[in-house]
Specification:
globular; binds zinc ion; disordered N terminus; 11 helices
Length: 265
């Protein structure tokens, strides 16, 4: 019962989004959310290429891997990506209309966005209670729950390290090649230029190829898709970031009303 109450509190928080520091820019918010989306998709790639066993929901696993990768280097960048990603989930929840509980799709493969925000916050506050305590408070997470998150974080980290250890590069040679490409942005040229200038794909590719030995060649591309999405395709081991996705997160800060109106279905 207590658990249910806690869950409802999180849902009640769906709107508004987190209190953002004033200096958050559409550019930074978009780039940070793209980082998180790409690390999530690489979570799927690792599961596929390294045949990582999954007990439960692969989406949750991919989210946990993304959070661990984001936290790995620590520092301000890791903090900003984490904070903006949780905020991005809450804003996405608003846009995609989960405000009415009866409309929530409990059968979807991805957890509800609020749930993803809460799961990520739990791992963050579990890893760095000092740094992410305020975020957890904003999320309405009780002190007792925040403490329990330290255990959840350790469990996720230990499990991940155990499963990934055979695939770490260490001082050895690189694994299979990871090709990066930015395809034509068309009417999304400005957001394509932002990602290119910030070398977002290159940065993610560097983390992946420096840390891990890919089992087979893979591609990381940014392209137009006709939808606001990012996905992993096991057919050719490719991760695709749609320019429309980056634009949506840009608009969440620059033009929130338009971001909401654009999310048609
Ligand atoms: Zn996924």
């Amino acid at each position: 019962m207590k658990h249910l109450i806690a869950t409802l509190c999180v849902l009640a928080l769906a709107s508004p989004a987190l209190a953002q520091e004033e200096e958050v820019t559409p550019d930074a918010f978009s780039v940070n959310n793209v980082y998180a989306a790409l690390y999530h998709e690489f979570g799927h790639l690792f599961v596929d290429q390294f045949q990582i066993p999954i007990l439960g929901n692969e989406e949750y696993v991919a989210d946990a891997i993304a959070t661990l990768l984001i936290l790995k280097d620590g520092g301000d960048a890791a903090y900003d990506i984490s904070y903006d990603t949780v905020d991005g989930y809450l804003r996405s929840a608003e846009i995609y209309g989960a405000e009415k509980l009866e409309e929530v799709d409990f059968n979807g493969e991805h957890g509800m966005d609020q749930q993803r925000a809460a799961q990520m916050t739990c791992l963050l506050v579990g890893a760095e209670p000092e740094l992410f305590g305020e975020l957890a408070n904003q999320m309405g997470m009780e002190a007792e729950r925040q403490e329990a998150c330290a255990f959840e974080y350790e469990q996720a980290k230990t499990g991940w390290e155990k499963l990934i250890s055979p695939h770490l590069r260490g001082d050895g040679p690189a694994g299979a090649k990871l090709t990066v490409s930015y395809e034509d942005g068309g009417e999304y040229a400005a957001i394509a230029r932002l990602l290119k200038d910030e070398k977002v794909l290159e940065a993610v590719a560097a983390v992946v190829t420096n840390e891990f030995k890919l089992a087979k060649p893979a591609t990381l591309r940014a392209s137009l898709c006709g939808e606001e999405n990012a996905f992993y395709d096991p057919e050719d081991s490719s991760v695709t970031l749609c320019y429309e996705y980056a634009q949506l997160y840009f608009d969440m800060i620059a033009d929130p009303e338009n971001a909401g109106m654009d999310a048609g279905e």
